[in-house]
Amino acid sequence: MADQYKWGLNPFNDSLLEIMIRGGDIAANNNRDAIIDIFKYILQLYLINKKDIIYLDFEIKDKKGYCSIIGNNIISALWLSGVIPANSLKVMESNEFSSHEYKYTFDNIKKNLKCEII
C-alpha cells in the first residue's frame, strides 16, 4: 500500500505537484524559468545567506511521462529533498551534510543523494 502525499513537508515538491494539478507540464522547456523563479522564491524564505541561491542547479528529466528532478550538486539535491543547511559553502566543500538523524552524501557522477540514519 502506498503512502499518502502530505502537503507542507517539502515546499519544492508541493509547488511542482500544484503545477501538475493545474495541468502544467513541469518537464516542458517553456516552464523551466517559471519553476526556477518559484524555487528561488521558496529559498528566499528559508536561506540565512541569500547569496547561497547561486547553488540552485537542477534538471527535470521526462522519460515516458515520468519526471525526475535531479539536483546537480549536493546543495540542490538537499534543497529539493526539503533539507536547508545553514552553511551551504561548508556543505559544498565537504560534499556531505549531517543533521541530528541523518548523514547525507552526494555522488557527483551519478547525481545521487545518499541518506544514512545516524
Could you describe the 3D structure shown?
The chain is α+β, with helices and mostly antiparallel strands. 34% of the residues lie in helices and 23% in strands. The protein has helices at residues 11-21, 32-46, 74-80, 88-94, and strands at 58-63, 66-71, 96-98, 102-107, 112-117. It has a 3-stranded antiparallel sheet. A two-stranded antiparallel sheet has the order 1-2. It is globular, with a radius of gyration of 15 Å.
Quick structural gist:
With 118 residues, this protein is an alpha+beta fold. Helix content is 34%, strand content 23%.
What percent of residues adopt helix (DSSP H or I)?
Answer: 25-40%
* Outline: globular
Output the strand order for the largest sheet: 3-4-5
Total number of domains: 1
Largest sheet: 3 strands, antiparallel
Q: Detail the poorly predicted runs.
A: none
Report the C-alpha radius of gyration, rounded: 15 Å
Tally of helical segments: 4
Which properties best describe this structure?
118 residues, alpha+beta, three-stranded antiparallel sheet, two-stranded antiparallel sheet, 4 helices
Topology:
Layout (H helix, E strand, L loop, with lengths): L10 H11 L10 H15 L11 E6 L2 E6 L2 H7 L7 H7 L1 E3 L3 E6 L4 E6 L1
Antiparallel strand pairs: 1-2, 3-4, 4-5
Helix pairs in contact: 1-2
